Amino acid sequence: MRVWAWVAAFCAAAFPAAAKDAARGAQLAAANCVACHGEAGVSRLAGVPSLAGQSAEFVTLQMILFREGLRQVPAMAGAAAGLQDNDIEDLAAFFAALPPGVPEDRGARNAALYAAGQAMSGPRNCGVCHMPDYRGQNQVPRLAGQREDYLVHALLEYRGGLRVGTDTSMSAVMHGVTDADIAALAHYLSQRD
Fold first, then answer.
1. C-alpha–C-alpha distance, residues 88 and 36, integer Å
2. Is 89 in contact with 56 (CB distance < 8 Å)?
3. Which residues neighbour 157 within 8 Å (Cβ) at sequence distance 6 or greater?
4. pTM of the model
């Protein structure tokens, strides 16, 4: 618990005080991020999330979790290691400034799956934290237009208690949700623009 309190306190202290340089963030991203997350922040790789249009707070928090080893994603361990706070904030400013987009390989909408996912989102109150249009806010990620395969992976991790963060709400929301329901919800969210 003390670690989460430290991360929350760090983020609260860092956000208002630091100037964020999106241009410098673009340079850092070009050297470290675009091979996986895409030049415009829209991922072309299966299982890799798009970052374009994510809030700066969300990107900053995730990068701190990666850097500090609190969130274990092997591909991100090396990328986050050694980043200074201002590097993370500049990267976050860059991705937040990019217009959101959808992956080039996004499949066609399946009307039945879309409807099933839409029906699930209401009772799960997804639009409360992620906003009604799923654009995200503050430390809550944008889901609209995100890679469907990534969303399935993330939701499975939440359901299994494997995804860590500063809030346990998603693990509770996903408790008892079936694989079929996760597939429907991911399809619905990925098809939102």
1. 17
2. yes
3. 163
4. 0.88
